[in-house]
């Protein structure tokens, strides 16, 4: 199956990130290389790209799609949680731009065997890095009812989290839950028909929560933003595309902290923290897809893009 992924908010990202000839950019979630192609075109003739992805299939697709750019691209099979060690090796002097696209790729959703989609019956998997052993099967069959309730409530923002967790535990007491189809049926029984949000699949939030837990997405994001800013040169840009309100909140709050020049309690008569502002926020509000993009790519509907520039 060919790897297809439509880059979201492409025009807006190119405009705000503003790649220039000779600059070095990092794509922390390379995917099929859609955004990276734009960076490489605009940084030609000698700009560099470091492309990171934990999905080996994505890297192979990117190698093919970005082949015309030859040695200007460095491909790294890793999770961006290892950004510090990656950049210390490939760009110790710093970089001019870093992009994170936090969504599951269209290819991952469409490839049935990966188990990301609630629309197709497949083995319970949801691993972005298929070399790791921990999968959705382990979460669904191994977590306690309390743990399941917590992740579905917090990561999925699901109102029926407690009932879904209860139904999962009751079902698996008879036999292990092995497929996405079984999990969807359990969720459908747990969520009353009258309570379902119109136009939204009842399993959407639970699948999202399990995927986040399997891949530790929020923890990795929180830990990595500071590292990314530290490796930006003065004037370098960081951009993050999120698809989940918790992700966007993390990005917003971290940018706000890094942009502030004082974190002292307001009752203090003068600043004692010695904190300095490291970035200037470029997006007062998150950038979202315009009508024409929504018509072409429905998966851009929940995308939010925030960006900042390093000022020290």
Uncertain stretches of 5 or more adjacent residues = none
Please, what is the CATH homologous superfamily of the largest domain?
Vaccinia Virus protein VP39
Q: In percent, how helical is the residue content?
A: 40-55%
Note the gap between the termini. 45 Å
Tell me the β content. Answer: 5-15%
Oligomerization state: single chain
Q: If helices are DSSP runs of H or I spanning 4 or more residues, what is the number of helices?
A: 13
Bulk shape: globular
- Main sheet summary: 7 strands, mixed
Number of structural units classed as domains? 2
Q: If you consult CATH, what is the topology of the largest domain?
A: Rossmann fold
Count the beta strands.
7
* Helix and strand element order: HEHEHEHEHHHHHHHEHEHE
Q: Report the top-level CATH class of the largest domain.
A: Alpha Beta
The Cα radius of gyration reads: 21 Å
Structural class: alpha/beta
Give a brief description:
Helix content is 41%, strand content 14%.
């Amino acid at each position: 199956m060919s790897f297809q992924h439509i880059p979201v908010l492409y025009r807006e990202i190119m405009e705000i990130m503003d790649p220039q000839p000779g600059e070095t950019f990092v794509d922390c979630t390379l995917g099929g290389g859609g955004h990276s192609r734009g960076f490489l075109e605009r940084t030609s003739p000698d700009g560099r790209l470091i492309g990171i992805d934990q999905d080996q299939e994505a890297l192979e697709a990117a190698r093919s799609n970005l082949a015309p750019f030859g040695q200007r691209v460095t491909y790294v099979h890793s999770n961006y949680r290892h950004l510090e060690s990656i950049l210390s090796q490939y760009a110790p002097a710093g970089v001019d731009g870093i992009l994170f696209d936090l969504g599951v790729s269209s290819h991952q959703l469409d490839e049935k065997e990966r188990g990301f989609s609630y629309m197709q019956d497949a083995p319970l998997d949801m691993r972005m890095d298929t070399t790791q052993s921990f999968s959705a099967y382990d979460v669904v069959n191994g977590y306690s009812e309390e743990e399941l309730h917590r992740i579905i409530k917090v990561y999925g923002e699901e109102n029926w989290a407690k009932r879904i967790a209860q139904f999962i535990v009751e079902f698996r007491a008879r036999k292990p839950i092995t497929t996405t189809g079984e999990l969807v049926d359990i969720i459908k029984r747990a969520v009353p028909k009258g309570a379902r949000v119109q136009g939204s699949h009842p399993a959407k939030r639970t699948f999202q929560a399990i995927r986040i837990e399997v891949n530790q997405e929020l923890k990795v994001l929180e830990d990595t933003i500071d590292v990314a800013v530290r490796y930006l040169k003065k004037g370098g840009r960081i951009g993050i595309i999120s698809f989940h309100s918790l992700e966007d909140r993390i990005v917003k709050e971290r940018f706000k902290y890094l942009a502030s020049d004082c974190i002292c309690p307001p009752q203090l008569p003068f600043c004692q923290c010695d904190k300095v502002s490291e970035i200037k926020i470029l997006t007062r509000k998150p950038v979202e897809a315009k009508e024409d993009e929504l018509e072409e790519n429905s998966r851009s509907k929940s995308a939010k893009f925030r960006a900042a520039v390093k000022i020290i």
